[in-house]
Amino acid sequence: MVSAENSLNILLAEDNAVNQKVIAHMLAKIGYTADIVQNGLEAVEASVQKKYDIILMDVQMPEMDGLEATKFIRQQLAVQPFIIAMTANAMQGDKEECLASGMNDYISKPISMTGLKKLLENFCLNQGFHGTPLL
Questions:
Q1: For residues 19 and 44, what is the distance between their CA atoms, to the nearest angstrom?
Q2: Rounded to whole angstroms, what are the CA distances from 53 to 27, 69, 127?
Q3: How many CB atoms lie within 10 A of CB 51?
Q4: Neighbouring C-beta atoms of residue 109, cutoff 10 Å
Q5: DSSP code at position 110
């Protein structure tokens, strides 16, 4: 579990309801909750209204895809969140395209608990969170 002083504000931008539930459940198992939005446009709006430490951003979404949403967030926000691309595309060049759009990291779907924990642990270590953020 995470101590109150080390809690993270997480936004999950995912259009698939099943994926939303699975990822939210994984986060809950390691002590986190996330605000959930359905598309990139909602992700942009949410990130303008609230400071998020991490955005788990699906790449392919309706209204505005994750790449465009990330570019907008990078251009508009003074305080930048750590954005993790989530995509079923695991082809050569997909990770590079995500990073080129301004995303900080990448995880392929289906997302595993181990992979998600590793990303969050790396973020916590890089941001100077103290203690053991994940159990």
A1: 20
A2: 14, 16, 10
A3: 12
A4: 18
A5: S
What is the C-alpha end-to-end distance of the chain, expressed in Å? 6
Give 48-92 as a DSSP string. Answer: HHS--SEEEEESS-SSS-HHHHHHHHHHH-SSPPEEEEEES--ST
For 53-88, what is each residue's pLDDT tens digit?
999 999 999 999 999 999 999 999 999 999 999 988
Residue with tokens 């002083």: 5
Distance CA 134, CA 3 (A): 10
pTM of the model: 0.89
Which is it for the CA torsion 126, 23, 2, 35, positive or negative? positive
